[in-house]
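Quick start: read one record
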Amino acid sequence: MHKKKFNPWPYLLIAPALITIFAVVFFPVLNAVLMSFQSYDLRRPSQIRFTGLANYAAAMHDSLFWQALLKTAIWVVVGVGFQFVFGFMLALLLNRKFWGRGVVRSISLIPWVTPGVLIGLMWRWIFDGNYGVLNDLLMRLGLIHDKIPFLAQQSTAFPSVILTIIWQGIPFFALMLLAGLQGIPEELYDAANVDGANAFQRFFLITVPSLKNTIFVTTLLRIIWVANSVDVIFNMTEGGPAYSTQTLSVYVFNKGNTLNLGYASTMAILLALALALVAVPYLKMLFKAQEESK
């Protein structure tokens, strides 16, 4: 039997991409896992040593870790939830025909394409208690009489950063869902109109089922991105005041800034495991939905 001649070209062509992925993804992840089992403090390099599960045990008894984990859950659920709702509403609006639709579509992408650092600085200025534009607007409308330090008090700091991340993420959902809406055949809506279906029935019996896979994928991606978001919160509050806006990713970043890389790596691994606990069942639901749609 004639053996097929080995062709090295496919492997050579994908080799640069594989090397790059290993260098920027797999190696840092592996290094973080190894550091999580070490007392790895760059302030005391001579004392770097293997400590087993000591960092994980310390995290379990760290009240700031649990507080940050709870803040992360609220940050993700509220932030992504409202991003999806308002993004869906924007997608439905942009799917309609009206004068200047192209311009409106372009403008609506501005929050998404703006770097997170700039968004954090911009909204920090908006919420500023001394010269922020929000306080000025509320006082001109007669809604408040004294300026509110939105980012300097615990009761308003976290809602303020959540509002910012909602504003940033709406265009992503709008763009993805708009692409899905444009892929739904008009014949389905025409048939529903003939059968006497109202707008509510058309939405839940045609639009939502047709966008089911898109909704699953975009929501999962956004959950991961928001959970790992650091730039917006750090540039607005740096996790304060009194840790009231410190999510787990910000806590990891702050610990890394103190050069305690072993403990920071431990919390990063725990955050990845928490996201995996959300992503795995979510992906199972997605695959099941795809099988049912076939």
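The radius of gyration is 24 Å.
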